[in-house]
Specification:
The complex is a heterodimer of chains A (122) and B (300).
Chain A: H1 3-8, E1 12-13, E2 28-33, E3 39-42, E4 47-51, E5 58-59, E6 70-75, E7 78-83, E8 90-92, E9 95-97, E10 99-101, E11 107-110, E12 113-118
Parallel strand pairs in A: 1-3, 4-5
Antiparallel strand pairs in A: 2-3, 2-12, 4-6, 6-7, 7-10, 8-9, 8-11, 11-12
Chain B: E1 2-9, E2 30-34, E3 39-42, H1 47-60, E4 66-70, H2 76-79, E5 94-99, H3 106-113, E6 131-136, E7 141-144, E8 147-154, E9 160-167, E10 170-175, H4 187-192, H5 202-208, E11 213-217, H6 222-226, H7 238-246, E12 250-254, H8 262-279, E13 284-287, E14 293-297
Parallel strand pairs in B: 3-4, 4-5, 5-6, 10-11, 11-12, 12-13
Antiparallel strand pairs in B: 1-2, 1-14, 2-3, 7-8, 8-9, 9-10
Helix pairs in contact in B: 5-7, 7-8
Amino acid sequence: MSDDEWNSEPTAMHRVSLALPSDAEPDLLEQRRGPGAPRVLPLLEDTVVIGRGEGVAIRVPSSSVSRRHARIERDGPVLSITDLDSQNGVLVNGTAVHSAVLCDRDQLQLGDAVFIFRRGAH
Amino acid sequence: MSLYVKFWGVRGSIPTPGWATQRYGGNTACVEVRTDDTRFICDGGTGIRELGAAMMRDKQDGVPCRAHILFSHAHWDHIQGFPFFSPAYLPDSELTVYGTEPGDDRMYRLLSGQMESLDYFPVQFSDLGSHTRSADLGGSAKVIDGVTVSFLPVCHPGGSLSYRFEAGGRRVVYSTDNELDLVLENADEARDDPTVPRVCPESLVEFVRGADLLVADGQYTDAEYRQRINWGHSRATTLVDLAAQAGVKRVAVFHHDPMQADADVKRKIDACKARAARLGVSVDIFGAREGIEIKLPYDT
């Protein structure tokens, strides 16, 4: 992903929590493809579930996405993603995984939804 | 039930922390293979420190610190993390270090040997609090808590062992520090012409046949290998040929060269994918990366 590509798309900001510390830039998911894209999703909670079902923090209304598809968890400075036994699995940079520690600019694919993980400044 | 494979250290030779290796990681060899209730640890490179920390967290949730530890060999990058493996210091930890032949305690002695002198490390092996014992695989294979563990000697200076884990029809092979290119049936031809198919030794093909996941030494690019013949490690691209001949489903290219930055590892994997496409091989090949876990479900 080039910086030009990063800057070229219009985005809408969807906050999954209320308050941002004034001195921190949050970790983000940028949704690039799939229903809802493009949008930017700050990861402010310690646990965030992605799926198409009601009541998840990041909802993707797609038949290729399971109701509770994956969970992103924070453990100190480390964020990881875990597949919640979804139908179509979780791909990190194209590799199917059960779980993975996330790195800046990792591409996450859940069904037809594609996200880019961006590490914040803490 | 499931087999889980988690990468705690994927680097070869020497730890490589730093910005250039953040994505794949800089810890030396350590891979965890576990079922829902039994844990195996392949090698004790620096990645085992983080694994130990995770086991300590699990212990707070009531999970006992128990592990069966299998070493490919005792070169530094495969044992240097053990002195920093926190469970080794707990009196209620149960750690078993395996040899291969009946009565073989060589790996146990080599592991403990690195902690015999205070000149090298401030804690002696005999002062570790855990219950650490030596066991063996009975000369060929052993069933441990429902998982059949077998081994195969492979090509590396001083020797190295590959391990195979089988449960519920699933098969995982850990095969690091193996200069596969040196023992190809057509080694000379394959070295002179990288484009020709590489014929792998039958013993290794049979050992990895049908593996759901093969974690294997793919330290070098084709160009790097030309300068490092006899150093004990493989061209990553040769794993494509092995996977094709043995019907392997997924390959994790492992033991990345310490000189390879993240972008270099990615190019190395891209070269493997290009070779697979050129040879018409259907295999999922990826670069082993710290923190990734693969799940292989099976029926009991």
